[in-house]
Write a structure and sequence with these properties.
The complex is a heterodimer of chains A (95) and B (199).
Chain A: E1 11-14, E2 33-43, H1 46-49, E3 59-67, H2 68-71, E4 82-88, E5 92-94
Antiparallel strand pairs in A: 1-2, 1-5, 2-3, 3-4
Chain B: H1 12-26, H2 32-44, H3 48-59, H4 61-69, H5 71-77, E1 87-91, E2 96-101, H6 110-113, H7 118-121, H8 123-128, H9 133-139, E3 149-154, E4 160-164, H10 176-180, H11 185-189
Classes of the chains: A mainly beta (95), B alpha/beta (199).
């Protein structure tokens, strides 16, 4: 597995990008900042697989935890409510 | 024909499925019988396997630890084959309630919970669960107090999720089988909690 660039507990930002094609980063989470909850391993890049390529080298996959109030400014609910989303490394940058 | 007996023309994806199936049979990659068997096996698979895993975790703290560390391996320990399932089990506690959704499609731990319910695949559930989970849970009849954080898990990539609910009060000394009977599908998705004898 390629060396992951981020560690659990680290703050990361999801790229605000809008490429065409098959993408596994949900629209609503792009541009949001969260905290790495865990590293899930490394998997072939699904954007490449969708183009019938091999998706290698595998991309480290993270679970990133976001505060609901930071994702949706008008969120109604407890301050501690969170969203956890799986995001591939090439969609993340340091904050 | 659909389930209600009314005729509708095939959709694009239905047509694609039939074409692909016929091609696979024609080329001798699979047989009609193998497809029928697999469909039958898929239909028979219910959420009982998931309930067994939950009940074991309730009675065996060491097993629970292993389950939370590596869900796939812990299922295999019980003799449950979960091929290709990278399972993450998330635990409900007095401070946190977990719920599962897949906003991109309808990813679901079928090997443990069977075929997903229709609502799990609906646009309504998928779009609102990440946006206003408390309102959605209330529609399922589940009121989560403000003192409990809600953790919504969007299974967007390679992992699959199952909620480990809290063991209901009043079940001390119950056997694993009896405990498993309290665990239903919705409580492992996180839109319900198991009811005990005192509830």
């Amino acid at each position: 597995m390629p060396e992951p660039l981020f560690r659990p507990g680290e703050r990361v930002r999801v790229l605000k990008a809008y490429p065409l094609g098959h993408v596994r980063t949900p629209f609503y989470i792009r541009g949001c900042t969260g905290t790495v909850e865990r590293i899930c391993g490394a998997f072939p890049n699904p954007e490449e697989l969708a183009q019938m390529r091999d998706g290698l080298p595998p991309q480290p996959l993270y679970r990133v935890r976001f505060l609901q109030k930071e994702v949706w400014p008008d969120y109604r609910g407890a301050a501690g409510d969170v969203l956890e989303v799986e995001i591939y490394q090439h969609w993340l940058e340091k904050t | 024909m659909n389930d209600t007996g009314t005729y509708r023309p095939l959709s694009y994806f239905q047509l694609m499925e039939i074409s692909l199936r016929e091609l696979l049979v024609e080329k001798g990659i699979v047989t009609e019988d193998q497809i029928a068997e697999e469909v039958e096996a898929m239909r028979k698979r219910g959420y009982e396997r998931g309930a067994r895993v939950v009940a074991r975790a309730w009675v065996d703290p060491e097993y629970k630890k292993r389950l939370l560390e590596n869900g796939t391996r812990a299922c295999e320990e019980l003799g449950l084959e979960v091929p290709a399932l990278k399972l993450l089990v998330v635990e409900n506690t007095p401070d946190a309630h977990n719920a599962i959704v897949c906003t991109l499609c309808s990813c679901y731990p079928r090997m443990l919970l069977g075929i997903p319910p229709e609502w799990y695949k609906s646009r309504n559930y998928r779009s609102r669960m990440v946006r206003e989970p408390r309102a959605v849970l209330a529609e399922f009849g589940l009121q989560i107090p403000e003192s409990v954080a809600i953790r919504v898990h969007d299974s967007t990539a390679d992992m699959r999720y199952m909620v480990l609910p809290m063991r209901p009060a009043g079940t001390d000394g119950w056997t694993e089988e009896r405990l498993a009977s309290l665990v239903n599908r919705d409580s492992m998705i996180g839109v319900a909690v198991p009811k005990g004898p005192n509830d």
